[in-house]
Design brief:
Shape: globular
Mean pLDDT: 96
CATH architecture of the largest domain: 3-Layer(aba) Sandwich
Number of helices: 12
Strand content: 15-25%
Number of domains: 2
CATH class of the largest domain: Alpha Beta
Helix content: 25-40%
Distance between the termini: 54 Å
Largest sheet: 7 strands, parallel
Bound molecules: NADPH dihydro-nicotinamide-adenine-dinucleotide phosphate, guanosine-5'-diphosphate-rhamnose
CATH superfamily of the largest domain: NAD(P)-binding Rossmann-like Domain
Strand order of the largest sheet: 3-2-1-4-5-6-11
């Protein structure tokens, strides 16, 4: 009997403590994988999103999840981890992922998001595992940047508009290059925005749902935002991590767009979230002077602050995941309205329990 058939598959996730890393770890554990994750050293706990996985019996009794200190800026550490873990699949989700912050931390963003990807690919080669490991790179719709074509597909030309987008474009191409140069099974998932109750608090959707939850509970009066007119294709993170896994299960290593093909503006997101708690918003003024008033009371609920604008903005993102649907039947399960509802309900519950959250 072939012993290897019974061996559980082993995955290594960089960025396991992030939104996507936590959902992906859950998915892989449910599929019987042993999941290893790289955690950055931090002065306070940064594992809140995967805490519940510790409570899972399988992570204790069957050692289904193992965490390691590491960092995408530390090559020696990456080589050591690849060598020790000998993973079948590597998911590179670790990144400085905030677009606005990348203008302030441009060099660091390139160091982690661009060169970090190279370090990880090279660590795999250093361990002579380039033919044994399947590699997933967390590429992004931010690479499309300035609108060239609607909807955006795998063929649309790139035009990044931020240090983050530029760094991710390097990571995209180095992944393609290692696939072509060394025959690695290395793929880019070009994922459009995806959100969830676990989304970082300083991304716009979560900022809005947290703010609306606090306003609803009388804990806060208004939310301060930047550009209300940018449009995004927002899906649910849980659906999107499934696509990551599916890409690595295909016979051929290919790049895929993952998106919903449905677009909403930040302004619409605000209106819908307020409507969910029974409040209508009307807009007054323009530019930085614009405000969102609550219709019934005339109280200002949304203010604009120039500090949340970006030096160069990505105005419009809409992706077509036709290829993923055709090749492996992927399509989003959670609708936009259900996503907003789930995030809002979760934040209302969170703020009710802990008004200081
Ligand atoms: P998060 O910001 O929630 O998570 C990022 C993860 O990367 C965290 O675990 C973070 O650790 C880790 N990280 C940051 N810096 C380093 C470093 N120097 N070394 C190792 N790890 C590091 O992002 P998401 O989960 O939303 O996104 C996952 C990936 O997908 C990212 O690469 C992102 O750029 C990309 N992406 C995201 C999309 C989205 O809409 N969410 C769309 C397209 C691509 P810590 O917890 O300690 O901060
Ligand atoms: P994005 O997400 O830049 O698309 O990157 P974000 O939620 O930060 O911004 C979306 C749009 O909302 C506008 N906006 C604001 N954004 C933030 N963060 N805060 C505000 O107060 C605010 N007001 C308006 C922005 O200008 C922008 O147009 C996300 C990240 O997850 C990336 O890592 C990922 O690659 C892309 O999605 C796809």
């Amino acid at each position: 009997m072939n012993q290897s058939v019974d061996l559980p598959r082993v995955a290594l996730i960089t960025g396991i403590t992030g939104q996507d890393g936590s959902y992906l770890a859950e998915l892989l554990i449910s599929k019987g994988y042993i999941v290893h994750g790289i955690v950055r050293r931090s002065s306070s706990f940064n594992t809140a999103r995967i805490e519940h996985l510790y409570a899972d019996r399988r992570t204790h009794t069957e050692s289904r999840m193992k965490l390691h200190y590491g960092d995408l800026t530390d090559s020696t550490n990456l080589v050591k981890l690849i060598y020790e873990i000998q993973p079948n699949e590597v998911y590179n989700l670790g990144a400085q992922s905030h677009v606005k912050i990348s203008f302030d931390l441009a060099e660091y963003t390139a160091e982690v998001d661009a060169v970090g990807t190279l370090r990880l690919l090279d660590a795999i080669r250093t361990c002579n595992m380039e033919k044994k490991i399947k590699f997933y790179q967390a590429s992004t719709s931010e690479m499309y940047g300035k609108v060239q074509q609607i909807p955006q597909t795998e063929q649309t030309p790139f035009y990044p508009r931020s240090p983050y987008g530029c760094a991710k474009l390097y990571a995209y191409w180095i992944t393609v290059n290692y696939r072509e140069a060394y025959g690695m099974f290395a793929v880019n998932g070009i994922l459009f925005n995806h959100e969830s109750p676990r989304r970082g608090e300083n991304f716009v959707t979560r900022k809005i749902t947290r703010g609306v939850a606090k306003i609803h509970l009388g804990q806060q009066e208004f939310i301060t935002l930047g550009n209300l007119d940018s449009k995004r294709d927002w899906g649910h993170a849980r659906d999107y991590v499934e696509a990551m896994w599916l890409m690595l299960q295909q016979e051929n290593a290919e790049d895929y767009v993952i998106a919903t093909n449905e677009v909403h503006s930040v302004r619409e997101f605000c209106e819908i979230a307020f409507r969910e708690v029974g409040r209508e918003i009307e807009w007054q003024g323009s530019g930085e002077q614009e405000v969102g008033l609550e219709k019934a009371s005339g109280i200002v609920r949304i203010k604009i602050d120039a500090k949340f604008y970006r030096p160069t903005e990505v105005d419009y993102l809409q992706g077509s995941a036709e290829k993923a649907y055709k090749n492996f039947g992927w399509k989003p399960k959670v609708s936009f309205m259900d996503l907003v509802k789930e995030m809002l309900e979760s934040d209302i519950e969170l703020m009710r329990k802990n008004p200081n959250a």
